[in-house]
Amino acid sequence: MHFGAIDRQMLLILRVQNSKPLNCNVGKRRKIRHNDFSTLNVKLEVEHSAEEVGTLGNEHGMLKEPHRNLYAINPKGILMIPDTYASLLQRCAEMKVVEDGRKVHAQIIKTGLEQALFAGNNLVNMYAKCGSLADARQVFDKMPERNVVSWASVIAAYVQQGYAKESLKLFSAMQLEYVRANEFSISSILKACSSIPALEAGYQLHAYIVKVAFGSSSFVVNALLDMYAKCGSIENARNVFDEMGQRDIISWNSMIAGYARDGFKEEALQLFGHLQKEDLTWDCTTLATVVGVCADLVALEVGKQLHTQIVKTPCYCNVFVGSALLDMYAKCGSADDAVKVFDRIPVHNVVSWTTMISGHAQQGNAEETMKLFIKMPLAGLKADEFTYAIVCSACGMLSSLKQGTQLHGQVMKSGFLLYVSVGNALVDMYAKSGSIENSHKVFNQMIQRDVVSWNSIISSYAQHGHGKEALHLFQQMQRANLVPNNVTFVGVLSACSHEGLLDEGRYYFNCMSKHGVTPRMEHYTCMIGLFGRSGRLDEAEEFVNQMPLEPDIVALRTLLSACRDHGNMELGTRIAERILKLEPQDTGTYMLLSNIYAAAGRWDQVSKVRKLMKDRGVKKEPGLSWIEVRNRVHAFTVGDRSHPQTKEIYAKLEKLTEQMKEEGYAPDMTHLLLDLEQE
Prior knowledge:
mainly alpha; two-stranded antiparallel sheet; 34 helices; 7 strands; 63% helix; elongated; disordered C terminus
């Protein structure tokens, strides 16, 4: 730690011989050097005229009362004015060097100044800004005298460290000691209310602000506005905003962000339109927020217009604005524009890189996601928990178990396995890669689990056909006092459907309202599938007709599949007609209906379906199968002979077919789709 540029007003150090009062001869110039300050290990050189020394000495009472606590003498005979300690502690706080701060603290104790109010306040502030909350609190508790600065410092420390509830307790204790809050303590405690959130406490603080006449402080009013917005009370936030005598850019940013956060995206854009008419300069926070709103609204044209304005501002080079633009273009499906923005960002950070990775993942481009992730270390950047969560999910899309296992190893080495979001992504990745064992292993190793964790493992077991295990996990989730959400019940109902547990499915479907979950289309679809698997087709149709929601194509096609499975041509025809009215180009419906007719021997109807497809220009896309061998994915279509190892592949298939026949396996050809082009 080096203080070479500290001016003489900041650090006045005077050599005193034998602890005697200073002997200053006016008009005579003295140069004082000292090369070792024991507590800070810094080289100091201070030059003062005797007149300056005498003046400053008299101001601090040094000449009149040399042995009082108005000044201090360290073991090497260096006299230090109290302001010196205060300045040193402030510098330690600015540079966040807590160890040097401790040395100054030790020197203060040696000189007997630890009981002084200035020392306590500066020590609390130093420890707080250096992140040592325990030390700050210890100094605060030992202070014999505390003022509003003391309280404001320790309250701010707790808020900054994330201990909002404790800061509220401290604020209450301050009131009990009849210490009148200042604008800094008020703004800190409003931030605490925002983070919990604690709207009721926010109301009380609002009343207090009015009572003590802090309403004219933009610093306080901006914090109040932000508190209401973050607590979800957007109407109160707008009232505060409208009543402000003078609004700065922070006020506008808070209000726009509040609208955006609470889902009022259109209102956020409208307010930005009003801001454009004000005589205020936008900052990077404004632009990043509004671009984010465009991303959420998938408003590509508005986003492009905003982009043209950003180019004209210094914020064009800001990495956070650039990341927001990346996200906007990615969510709007404009991958080329996203790449252009990414390439033009002068200095990347983990946020911009992760945003680009996320953009590819959102577009379902898992291979590009993985390629960009591999390039990230080459750019000198390390992935964070958000990056790993996104990449693990993308790896699940590829169903690449080997690549997923390698990624898991990287996560463990980086130390991000403790993050819930990363653990959740790994659980999902292993399940989609076909390894339910590894999925459950990761789940069991998670120190913390949230609702998403339980949803992932329940859905994983349900998708793999282990319905009973999925229901058992749901019971464990309830015992863990976690409240299930709509995603949880999709997994639970899917598990019941796979196991054919009709009574249990009905029970859980009816229980949803008790947990505050309103059934959505996906829940109704699960129940239709459950009725269908159980052969209750009439009940399934009745269930569809009584739904409070208009059934979508997926729900109706689920019932149509059940009609195919159970050979119910009459109901299947009715359902197919309903689907084709909604979506005449739905290939799957034509295929299912064709199979229903073929299974019933109604070849005339099969021909009609084929003609209808031809007239409407509907073509069946060939299905694909793929397999990963030595880090390479090989894709195949039916009858595909394009692979360079086609002969070896078909030879192996013939051997497998013979082996299956010897084992007594007979394939179920009932639902084999007809090749309408070669029939």
